[in-house]
Amino acid sequence: MNERNTLIENQYDLLGLFEDIVKRLKEQGVDLNHITRSDISGVDEFHLRGAEVSKELVTEFDLKNLNVLDVGCGLGGPCRMLADEFNCNVFGIDMSHEFIRTAQKLSEIIQINGKTEFVQGDALNLPYEDNSFDVVWTQHVQMNIEDKETFYSEINRVLNNNGTLIYYDIFKNVNDDIYYPVPWANDESISFLGTIENMETILKNLGFSKAQTTNQTDKAVEFLHNMFDKIKTNGPPKIGLNVLLGNSTKEKLGNVLIGLEEKKIELQSGIYKKQ
Prior knowledge:
By secondary structure, the chain is α/β, with parallel strands linked by helices. 40% of the residues lie in helices and 20% in strands. The chain has a seven-stranded mixed sheet, sandwiched between helices.
């Protein structure tokens, strides 16, 4: 692993993450023999708006019974949703060893591990054969990837002909510096925000066609304001993004909010079809 990849993995490294989640569930009185997806929904989707936005994405496309790859799967929340509700065979890959270990164990205790498979690996060198998947799904990943062309080329390679790319990501609007730290980077050394225009150019050159895109910025701003209001009133949640971001939760998400409101960054989801 090169030095930059090591820095990125360290950004998300939380030793004992699975055990911490189980401890928090126990403190809330959750029956550890009957843990459900809803019990962990506050933490197992590491992106703005969490499970809510993942549910929105699946309403835009018929995913039933498909083979899906989640690039940058984190703790595997979307993978379990797709497997549980749509009978998909879902493969998740992430650079973080601890995220993958936790994703595997969470699928085991929720008893849907038969339809989810998680591996530690590099999004720029996916360990899958050509034309392996009907859908590639990625949320809040490309911000840490400098080589956008290889990132999207690898997605293109593993997709079947007429396959589908579904994404939900953060992009930069201007060349001005954003405020650090943010959830994906403590400083600019591992932050590689791209523009929507650059992504569109790369995908077009690879032969993808745009099916639809949605500006998600306003919903993210509303989500963050509501989250901060709840924290001010009730304190931090037992199971939330604070489990992953720790004491820096308020600062990191606050900087994202400032960037969105100052229009330095924006959120977009979209669907592209491989031709």
